[in-house]
Structures are given as C-alpha cells and as structure tokens.
Amino acid sequence: MAGESYLVAGLGNIGPEYELTRHNMGFMVLDAWAQASNISFETQRYGDLAVLQTRGRHFYLLKPSTYMNLSGNAIRYWLSKLPVPQERLMVICDDINLPFGTLRLRARGSDGGHNGLKNIIECIGNADFARIRMGVGHEFSEGRQIDYVLGRLSEEELKAMPDLGKKVISGISDWAFAGIDRAMNTLNTKPSAANSAESK
C-alpha cells in the first residue's frame, strides 16, 4: 500500500576505528544507499537517521550509535517513535557462519550467536523481525573471533562490497514492494565460491 513506512537498521560500531570492519557491514550498506539516493544522515537520539522516499514509501535508515552489543536500545526507541510496525523492520548485520559474499534473508529466527541480534531480541521481546545476514567468513583461530569481526575487510573484500550492497538494497526493495518471498528469491543464492555453505 502507498504510504507505508519501513525501518531499515544497519548494525555496526560508531567511530573511525571501526570503519570498514567486518562488524560494520550494516553501516556500509546504508551509507552506500544514502549516497546513491543523495540523502544524508542526521545524528539523533540513539543513532544516525536518514529518510528515503521512493515510489510512495518511506524508508527510515538507521545506524545505531549504541554500539553493536546494545543495538536493541536504538531499534526499540525508533520503533516507538516512528510510524513503523515491527513487521516492517529490517536488520542488516554480518555473519561469521556464512562465507564472504553469501547473503541470507530470513523473516525471523534466532540470534545465531550475533550479539547485536541477541540484544535486539532481548529489547523488543521477540525474534519476529526480518534480517539480512551478510557473510564475512570465519578465517580465525580459536578465541580470536572478536579480533576477526573487528578487523578490517581485505582489499579484495572491499572491492566486492559495492556489488554486495546493491544486492542487499535490491532485496530490501523487493521485500517492501513485492513481499518477503520475492526478496528471499533475490538474496538467498550462493556466491560463486565453491566453499559456499548454508548457515544454521
């Protein structure tokens, strides 16, 4: 229906030291979307917010300023402030259970070990929200997970990000305008790498 509004939250950590890190994939997608749409983020309570109007819909793009592990505080606040029901919430985050380049859209589900998703579920009281998980791989030794997700993407991975971002944005558009089944068909494909694998 025309006039519907959507909240798209890209997860990450604020501060220049976290730019271009694996944990900031959500921020990177929203930054690219805002740049391509010629809109700007404004710093507001619990995060930076940009508003995109397209084809009769409003997309509120949110980059929480609460740091990854407290992302739920920002999302709970903005769900209460904006004319957006929870069924029109989309979260974008990284996922070490998926190879780099793999995208997975789900209508709901567990946190999968992701602290940002875990906090959102705790804050809003359920796991019934759509999420796009962007694979970052798991090329780290035991006990080095934090260093890995807070590490900078490789040059090769950074070169792949524009195309991945476009796919995510296209999937979100399909979700809003054609429904989640269409969006899942768009996004839930394996990358060309032979070692691609499904997540839990």
3D structure, described in words:
The chain is α/β, with parallel strands linked by helices. It has one domain: Peptidyl-tRNA hydrolase (Rossmann fold, 3-Layer(aba) Sandwich), CATH 3.40.50.1470. Helix content is 36%, strand content 21%. The chain contains six helices and seven strands, in the order E-H-E-E-E-H-E-E-H-E-H-H-H. A seven-stranded mixed sheet has the order 2-3-4-1-5-7-6, sandwiched between helices. Helix 1 packs across helix 5, helix 2 packs across helix 3 and helix 5 packs antiparallel against helix 6. The longest helix is centred in the last third of the chain and has 24 residues. It is globular. The N and C termini lie far apart (34 Å). The C terminus is likely disordered.
Features:
200 residues; alpha/beta; Rossmann fold; disordered C terminus
Strand order of the largest sheet: 2-3-4-1-5-7-6
Average pLDDT metric: 92
Number of helices: 6
Question: What portion of the residues fall into strands of 2 or more residues?
Answer: 15-25%
Overall 3D shape: globular
Largest sheet data? 7 strands, mixed
Question: Radius of gyration from the CA trace?
Answer: 16 Å
CATH architecture grouping: 3-Layer(aba) Sandwich
Terminal CA distance reads 34 Å
CATH fourth-tier homologous superfamily: Peptidyl-tRNA hydrolase
**Overall number of structural domains:** 1
Stretches with pLDDT under 50, minimum 5 residues: 193-200
Listing every helix as H and every strand as E from the N terminus to the C terminus, the arrangement reads: EHEEEHEEHEHHH
What is the CATH topology descriptor? Rossmann fold
CATH class: Alpha Beta
Strand tally is: 7
How helix-rich are the residues, as a percent range?
25-40%
Q: Structural class given helices, strands, pairing?
A: alpha/beta
